[in-house]
Amino acid sequence: MAAPKYPLVKAAETYARRVVTGKIPCCKWIKLACQRHLDDLKASKAADYPYKFDPAKAERVAKFLQLLPHTKGKWANKRELIKLEGWQLFSVCIPFGWLRKKDDTRRYRTILIFVPRKNGKSIIGGGVGAYMFVADGEFGAEVYSGATTEKQAWEVFRPAKLMIERTPELRDHYGVEVNASNMCRLEDGSRFEPVIGKPGDGSSPSCAIVDEYHEHQDSTLFDTMETGMGAREQPVILVITTAGSSIGGPCHQLVRDSERMLEGVIERPDLWAMLYTIDPGDDWTSEAALIKANPNHGISINGDFLQARQRDAMQSASKQATFRTKHLNEWVGAKNAWLNMLRWKEAPARKSLQELEGRRCIIGLDLASKIDIAGNILLFPPVEGDPFWHVHGRYYLPESRVIEELDSNTSRYREFDALGLLTLTDGEVIDFEVIKEDLREFAGRFDIEAVAYDPWQATQLAQEMVAEGLPMVEIRQTVQNISEPMKELEALVLRRLLAHGDCPILTWMASNVLAKLDVKDNIYPNKERPENKIDGIVALIMSLNRAIAGASTEETLSDHIMKHGIRRL
């Protein structure tokens, strides 16, 4: 029997079919990614389908990578060449074979490889970087290994540099000059170099490799690279990362977008994502979990090593979060975070505001700052036939916070604004008239039981709203007022009763909350840094304060307000 024309592509697609049929244990996201490729192959035969697969282009990338030497471990010691595993062939090479029919340029512009530590990331990053530098056919190629620190930037550049240094035939063929901190080709001016932060003015990346994206506080580097690619016909951003502790950050958002894309919820035809982790409900203490999350199990990462780390995590609560993040690729929330963010992600489906019209509603307002984000949270308690607590929020921000580079959250705010999640008000401070208009709207749509607010910054607003008949309840943010509803919120999350709609803003704020405990086991919300905003969660806790009080109050809150005006607690 003749050998297949494209053996490496065949091996990659064999891997995909074995994943889909369950012969290779993988999580839901890898199964969906493999099925997506197989489905697209069938669809591409239709004349009106906008994409086609060229196996020769995928094979070319795979062959190039397998001509490069290992740079680490026993394989480098033996001077062995790289041999890509089935998952690497599929994850890294197959996307290069997908083209747009209209112009034969690459379909995928962002490639996300989300994989636990020690699964051969340096081979992927260094190899793809080397290919894009010399073999992609891009005149004047610019390849950047981007990171927030010099050490991280070199984690990709160093292997690529060693690969080319140790392959004199490649270096001579392409005319590569290897320098201490960069590589270049004199023939066309192509270059490959590490970059910390933003590339310099005039840069036009043809390929950007972002390593350990979870360590980035915002998307500045990613956005700058992407914006700089405007003059390139078929640029690529390759993101290779593990999970991290910053839920709501740019890396987590990219992973969530990838999940939604794989589920068919959003359209991202230019995004290729391979997300190696475990599924909800899997036993993280089992060997099966190790195998499922680590595609190079028994190859570049030793099974005994993983089991030893797993045993350590089972015996020490302090080591569990690190193990599950780095070796199972689970997002476990901020360091020392209060809420269980894994449970947060398992929230029930949320009803829309239209579906909730006429329902009992408690509002929480956190207006602590007029110059930064403020939260207006609507909480809908359970009713017969619906056991869930539904949460909706509106968030307000002065327009200057999005337009100007005022602080480290500017990029994040821009992302939220692009998603339509922020209400921007003119000027340098929040215009409370906009918030009052929203409160009037809510009063006409829902059965408002109480509007809980902190008197800081909001007393005048509250007085005006009381005059209009809204049941405003002043809640000072003391331990006595906050501790019990904060504990109740934690319980609702753990019991999967809080339907928050996976709102990116509220999720980010939830992951920022730390629990400050006192000697009487009271808790209070705190944060590590000023930029870690928690306003929406504080407003939600205030709403729960009124829900708890309402369950035990003899006279209704609205009756009390009519008699006594603003109630002070």
Distance between the termini: 84 Å
CATH superfamily of the largest domain: P-loop containing nucleotide triphosphate hydrolases
Count of spatially separate domains: 3
- CATH level-1 class of the largest domain: Alpha Beta
- In oligomeric terms, what are we looking at? single chain
- The DSSP helix count reads 22
Strand order of the largest sheet: 5-6-7-4-8-9-3-10
- Largest beta-sheet details: 8 strands, mixed
Q: Can you tell me the CATH architecture of the largest domain? A: 3-Layer(aba) Sandwich
Low-confidence stretches: 552-569
Radius of gyration (Å): 27 Å
Overall geometry: elongated
Helix content: 40-55%
Structural account:
This protein is α/β, with parallel strands linked by helices. The chain folds into three domains: 7-275, Rossmann fold; 287-332, no CATH class; 345-568, 2-Layer Sandwich (Nucleotidyltransferase, domain 5), CATH 3.30.420.240. The protein has 22 helices and 20 strands. An eight-stranded mixed sheet has the order 5-6-7-4-8-9-3-10, sandwiched between helices. The longest helix has 16 residues, at 28-43. It is elongated and about 80 Å long. The model is unreliable at 552-569 (pLDDT under 50).
